[in-house]
Design goal:
single chain, 270 residues, alpha+beta, three-stranded antiparallel beta sheet, globular
Length: 270
């Protein structure tokens, strides 16, 4: 098939020395390298209508001996009726995989003896592009092909489990991690420090606060209930702390909470 990709620096340098017609000027003035390339399909996605394939290259007729090529991820491909031809030095560089035979669709099909399939890199190819059928990997070599392909897919990549050892923090526990989750502390003024415990009732007595030594409104009663000039109750129950008809705000007797206020009004003098 006709394959096009952005021209790399090596192709640009070579085009400056030779008249390389494979490099053309594309959109935005960028150079595009295009050539007829052969692929071996290793995976088919019928739901999304594309395939994964590995490219066959000759590396300028040098096979896996070309500088910069990792020979261990390659395998020799050859047509049925011919013999695989490993090049001197390929085995020493790591080309140890068994050759893969191709049964050609056309008996007149030819393949360069330097053809090597790179199993460590995959290409995505859509179903609706123009291709030419060359043949099929021999049935006796297909299981070997997939074994090599799966082995090479995990080679060379950085580990993707760098966060596996990090503990998972539940949402309700997030505000306990001030170094990581700071959005919860937007509620606190800049001069205050957040609570060091999830429960203020467990750490601070009812009616007190970690930010002040003065008594604070009870958590059982709304703050607006207490006038600004008064100190709030230090207990949720006034009956338990103050005698009946008394108040924390005054030394005078107050109406009982159990009897109506009009009962304690002074009688008019005669």
């Amino acid at each position: 098939m006709l394959w096009a990709e952005a021209a790399n620096e090596t192709a640009l340098r070579n085009s400056a020395v030779t008249d390389n017609t494979a490099i053309t000027i594309g959109r935005f003035g960028e150079r595009v390298f295009s050539q007829i390339r052969r692929f071996v399909v290793v995976r088919v996605n019928r739901q999304s209508h594309y395939v994964h394939a590995c490219a066959i290259s000759t590396y300028g007729g040098r096979g896996a001996t070309k500088w910069g090529v990792r020979a261990s991820e390659h395998a020799i491909v050859y047509l049925n009726g011919s013999q695989p031809a490993p090049y001197p030095g390929e085995h020493e560089r790591g080309l140890t995989k068994d050759p893969l035979r191709v049964d050609p669709t056309d008996p007149k099909e030819k393949m360069d003896p330097a053809s090597r399939v790179r199993l460590g890199k995959i290409y995505s190819i859509e179903w609706n592009v123009k291709v030419r059928d060359i043949g099929m990997i021999a049935a006796t070599d297909r299981s070997r092909l997939m074994k090599y392909f799966k082995e090479e897919q995990s080679e060379g990549f950085e580990p993707d489990n760098e966060f596996e050892d990090e503990p998972t923090i539940e949402p309700q526990e997030a505000y306990r991690q001030p170094g990581k989750y700071t959005q919860h502390f937007d509620y606190f003024p800049a001069t205050m420090q957040p609570f060091s415990s999830a429960s203020t009732q467990a750490q601070y007595p009812q009616g007190s606060s970690p930010y002040s030594t003065q008594a604070q409104p009870s958590y059982d009663e709304p703050e607006w209930y207490f006038p600004a000039t008064m100190q709030p109750f230090s207990s949720a129950s006034t009956q338990a702390q103050y005698p009946r008809r008394s108040s924390p705000y005054s030394t005078q007797a107050q109406p009982s909470y159990d009897e109506p206020e009009w009962k304690y009004r002074e009688k008019p003098q005669k």
